[in-house]
Amino acid sequence: MWFVIAKEQDLRESMKVTSQVPGSTPVEIQSENGDPTGFFIVGISNKYQDEYANFIKFSEAEVKQARDLISNGITVPTQQLIPAQTAAFAAKELPNGKKLFKRVWGFGDNSEVEPGSTKNFTFIIPYPHCKITDTSIIGGQHGDSVDFLILDTEEGAVSGYPNHQLNQFGFNVWVTPGVYKEASQYDADLYLGMQIQVVYRNGGPEIVRPLFNLTLHEVI
Hints:
2 helices; 9% helix; five-stranded antiparallel sheet; mainly beta
């Protein structure tokens, strides 16, 4: 069985139905405070694949992670941004027939990092499956440095330990003033709910407010 997540109106408009949706009874996702979020989970079998062609299909593990993210107010893509059969903007086709679609994200809360201090900035992966190829840092200064970490989900979906460090791809990397960019000649796989954490150390004389960009490629 697969699962889709959507607002009720989107479900009805997509399938052109008025009173019933194919699949299991939609269950609304609640926020951490118990308030309705407006998003519903529907379990579907292969019988209803065509009716949900425009929606991202989640496995049981993925839908649990997506539910937790939505409950915490984090946006999770639930529909294909383009028709599944269209390859516009696709970087390449993978051997399994899926395609990569470039998604550039910016993150950072414009908070201050004072001289001599360290602050962590975290980005939560919003796609069921994606690849990362490069990162950039804006607003650094001479003497600043960063570590780039890959953390497990908040529930520990990969390692069994919440927020456990799975990998590290930056070790005391010096930040150049202005814009620093790091690109890889190969991609790395990331999954829904995993976290990219930037450990930012201010080694310069001034307060900085660093911001970050990531180049992801969603696998569809």
